Amino acid sequence: MSLAQRFTAALAAETAGSEDDDGHLLPERLARVVTRVLPVDGAGLSVQLSRLGRCPLGASPAAAGRAERLQFTVGNGPCLLSVTTGHPVFLVAEDLQRRWPVLAELLLEQTPYRGVVSLPVRHALAGTGALDLYLTDPAGVASLDVFDAVAVGDLVAAALTDAAVWSTWSEAEGPHWLHSPPAERRAAVWQAVGLTSAALDLDAAEALAVLRAHAYGAGRTVDSVAADLVSGRLVPADVVGRPGAG
Question: SS3 for 64?
């Protein structure tokens, strides 16, 4: 059975018997499919929506989702590099430590992964996408077949495109899979950026930098800090060390 046939069969198995979710859960299913057809321990899909950062679409298992949130919290990493260069990125722990020591520290402490392969995903209809592949054994990075990995990235892009073509959605909102649960949680970050920007008289990039610094200092992710700001458990003054009354 070819790689494409195995991918199609695995996706069919993931979809069989599931309730119709209008495609919101497709990215997570695709991430699970990737881990079934490639010799990797985790996979995550994301898309670059603006100059400020990425939007996660889906990941499997949960540790892969956390790895994406750590990259976003630090503000750099293999995912952004692959999107920027348009080329696959292959890194083991030593490479991560040399290039992004802060990110490497967080990944090594909070996830089981010791190797990352990041691939640009084209034709996803919403910005420039990326597929991150995570490995617990760094030796798996060198042994991963680059042609197979790129082919799977293309199959993922095709699945997202097909889902968009065969569904109804507005240009303003984008395809349904762009509103997956991880994407909706990341949307809170942009709400928090707006709150912080207005309260502290900062532009959006500066406000995001403040949130990232607070999150790193508190041992948290930007996503969790943003959720607290949007809910009112934190106020913008809290994130710069000036607790407010709210």
Answer: helix
